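User: structure tokens for this one?
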Amino acid sequence: MKMAGQVDNSRRDLLKAAAVMAGASAVSFIAVSRDELKKMLVPVNLGDLVAEAAEAGSPLEGKVQEREAKLKEWCWAEADKICRSMGEDSDACREARKRCAMIKVKGTGPREGVRFAMALDVNKCIGCRRCAYACVMENNQGRNLGIEWIKVLEMPREEMDVIYANMDYTEAPKPIMVYVPVACMHCEDPPCTMVCPVRATWKEPDGIVVVDYDRCIGCRYCITACPYGARHF
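Assistant:
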């Protein structure tokens, strides 16, 4: 069995073909009521989604191990600099390497009944786009690609008209403007997860909507389905 990230080309080609065939029903979902949509589209079954990964460990465990390895690699590199500068027998060198060895990243799964939420104070946002840059790094995308999971809208403070919002501003903040980051709303019944033909996006028990970018085939149905325009490709 293959873990996410180990999808072979033949499987990906098959999924792409299935996505094209399902296009008409997925794109036209907006004209259907929510109750009818639920009957037509089968929500993601988490058990089916992670069944292939059950034997080798959960995606959370893999991410925890990857993060721990990266932190230790960075720490050892910094410790080596200290040791070269202060000497291998110095207290600073021994302490630095001791602390690197102590690094441990723990991953805790969702607790039953716990739901997460994120609040945004628009009055404090200065349009710096730091949230977008951090999100790009978290989702393994380089900034040079021009891909952002969070879009920051600049709008006149007196009007707040989303239709004429500017996403390409180069100077901020401006006193007459208000800045609104548009991110995933983690909906109660997210339509984006319902239209994905390969189940590359799903809702976790703790309320978070996640995306497996290794499983995603780029059909962009989720972008069409998102009522907030928060999905980007």
